[in-house]
Amino acid sequence: MTVLDRGSVEDLLAGAPTSNEKILSFVRSIAERTTPDRIEWITGDNEQKRELQNQLIEAGTLKPLPKQKDSFYAASDPDDVARVEERTYICSREEADAGPLNNWMAPDEMKSILGDLFAGSMKGRTMYVIPFVMGRADADQPMFGIEVTDSAYVVLSMQIMARCGTAELKAIEEHGGEFVECVHSIGAPLEPGQEDVVWPCNTTKYITHFPEERAIWSFGSGYGGNALLGKKCYSLRIASAIAREEGWLAEHMLILKLTSPEGEVKYVAAAFPSACGKTNLAMIEPTLEGWKAETLGDDIAWMRFGEDGQLYAVNPEFGLFGVAPGTGYTTNPTAMRAIEAGGNVFTNVALTDDGDVWWEGMTEETPSHLTDWKGNDWTPESGTPAAHPNSRFCTPITNTPTLADEYENPNGVPISAILFGGRRKTTMPLVTETKDWTHGVFMGSTLSSETTAAAKGQVGVVRRDPMAMRPFIGYNVGDYFRHWLEIGRTEGAKLPKIFYVNWFRRDDDGSFLWPGFSENSRVLKWVFERVAGTAEAVETPLGHTPAEGSLDIDGLDVTEEQLRKALAIKPEEWAEELASIEEWYDSLGDHVPAELKAEVDNLRQRLGVK
Ligand SMILES: Nc1nc2c(ncn2[C@@H]2O[C@H](COP(=O)(O)OP(=O)(O)OP(=O)(O)O)[C@@H](O)[C@H]2O)c(=O)[nH]1
Ligand SMILES: O=C([O-])CC(=O)C(=O)O
Ligand SMILES: [Mn+2]
C-alpha cells in the first residue's frame, strides 16, 4: 500500500477554504490514512453540484430523468440496498454502555480494524469534505458535523438531506470548531488504469460509532443510513448519547402540525419503525372536513424542554429519504407533489420505457414493460418486484407543499402528543391513550412490529423495537428506558400524552381492519380532542380507547363492527403478548428499570390473565 508522504497531503490541502486547525487536522489525518488523489471541499454552490452530477452521469452511476425536473436515477449494487444492522457497532469504552441490543467492540480493537480497512481506501478517488449542520446553524445549540467521503453520490444525497457547504463551514469556525467527525469510504480504491464500476462498494461493511468521542466511521456501503452519516448515525445514534447526557430526546419520529376547524393548533410526534408509515403520516391529507395537517418532519425529531416546561421538537433533516413502493397519488399525494417539484435522487426504483421512474403502488395501472432496479427487462408476469422494496426517493423537504412555516423555527414546536406504533396483524388496537408517562414509556419500550425491507434480513417477523429506536439507540437500551422515565420526572415538565396506534391490524380473512393512510386523520382528530379534553374515552386495561361514537367514522366504509375489532383487546392475545414482553425484558439484562417491569404485572392484573 503506497502512503502519500506528508508533503503531498499538504499539497492536497493547499487552498483549503479554512484555516481552522481542528478542521484541518481532522481532514489531514483522514487524507493521510486513505490517500485520495484529490480533496474537494463542498461549497453548496450550483456549479459544483452540476459538475458532480456530470461526473456521475459519465461514470454511469446517475441517469438523468428527462421527464422529471433536475432529477436522477441510480441503481446500487444488489448487495448494497439497505442498512446493515449486523455490521453496525457502538464502540463505547465499556461493553455495558452499548447494551445487549447493539453490536459492540472495544474502541481500540475497532480502530485497529478500521485502520487496516481505511488504509489507502480512497486511492485513485476524490475525498470530498462536507461541512454540515443538523437542524439550523442559528439554533440555540447548533449541531455540526463534517463528513468526508469518497462517494460523489453520497455528496449529492447529503446535500439534499442536510444543510451543507461553505456557510456551514463558516458557522463551525465561528462556534469554535466543534463538530461530529464523520468518516465514510465505499472501500473501493482504484489502481492506475483500473476501470471503475457503476456502484463501487465493498463486501466488507462496518458502520461504527464512538459515542464518547462523537465520531462515526463507515466503510463499504454507499447506501442510505449506512452512508449519509448525518441521518441515523449522527442524528439518532450519536445524538441519543448526547441527549442522554444533556437531558433531551433524539428520536425516530415524524413531526406533524394539526389545525382543527376552529383554528386551534397542536403538534404531534410519532415513532413507527422503519417502513411503517412515518412519511405517510407526516404528509397526511385529512379526509375530515375543516381539518388541516402540515408537515414538520418525517423521520427524526430532537426534543428539548423549553422554558415553559413543554417539549419542543425540531426536525434536524433538510430532506426526505422516503420508501418509494407504496407511495402514490392515492396513498400519499403530498409526497408525489413534493417529488414533482424536482431535485430528486431516486435509488433502486424501476425505469419506464420513456425514461421515467416507476415503483409498485405509484400508479393504479402497472406499466406493461419496465426496466427493473437490477437493469433487467420486466413485465407484470416477471413475478419479482420492479422496484426494490427499500427503493427510495431523496427529495428536498422544502418541496413539500404541506411544509409548516415553523419548519424554519430553529427551536422547534411544542409537542402535545407522542404516538408509538408498529405493524402488527393482531393484538395491538387501532388506538389507545396510555394512562400516564410511565405507562406510555412502558408501551413505547415494548413496541413491536413485523420486520420490513428497510433493513437486510427476514421480512415479516415480529420483533420488539423500543420506541422504534432499536437499531438507533447509541447506548444501553435499559439506560435509554431510564432516560425516558427521567425526562418524565423533569421539574416543571408539561409532558405530552402518549398514545399507541396500529394501522396494520388484520381481520380473520387477512384484510386490513382499518383503511389507514389519509383516514388516519380520524385517529389524529381523536388524539387532538383527547389532548384538548373534549373526546370521550372508555377505560380499558391498556389505558383509554375511543368511546362508542367518539372516533369519527362518518362517511367511512368501516362498520361499527369492524371498528370494534380494530379496537379490541383480546385477553388470549395479551396472555401471549405479556409472556413475550417479559421474556424480552429479561433478555435485556439488569439495566431495565424496575418501574417498567412492574408495569407488566400491573397490566397482567388489569387484564386478568395469567
Ligand atoms: N396498510 C397501511 N399501510 C401503510 C400506512 N401508512 C403507510 N403504509 C405503508 O407502509 C410503507 C412505508 O411507509 P413510510 O411512510 O414510507 O414509512 P417510514 O416509517 O417513513 O419509513 P422509513 O423512512 O424507513 O423510516 C409504505 O409501503 C406505505 O404504503 C397505513 O396507514 N396503512
Ligand atoms: O436510514 C435509512 O436507510 C432509511 C430510514 O429512514 C430507515 O431505515 O429508517
Ligand atoms: Mn427512518
Automatic annotation (TrEMBL):
Active site residues according to the UniProt entry? 276
Q: Which Pfam families match?
A: PEPCK_GTP (PF00821), PEPCK_N (PF17297)
Cofactor notes: Binds 1 Mn(2+) ion per subunit.
Reaction catalysis annotation: oxaloacetate + GTP = phosphoenolpyruvate + GDP + CO2
Q: What is the source species?
A: Brevibacterium gallinarum
UniProt-annotated binding residues for Mn(2+): 232, 252, 299
Q: What is the lineage of its organism?
A: Bacteria, Bacillati, Actinomycetota, Actinomycetes, Micrococcales
CDD domains reported in the protein's UniProt record:
PEPCK_GTP
**Which InterPro entries does the record associate with it?**
PEP_carboxykin_GTP_CS, PEP_carboxykinase_C, PEP_carboxykinase_GTP, PEP_carboxykinase_GTP_C, PEP_carboxykinase_GTP_N, PEP_carboxykinase_N
Phosphoenolpyruvate carboxykinase C-terminal P-loop domain segment(s)? 248-606
Residues binding GTP are: 275-280, 392, 423, 517-520
Localization annotation: Cytoplasm
- Its EC number is 4.1.1.32
Q: Which domain of life is it from?
A: Bacteria
The pathway to which it is assigned is: Carbohydrate biosynthesis; gluconeogenesis
Q: Supply the name of the protein.
A: Phosphoenolpyruvate carboxykinase [GTP]
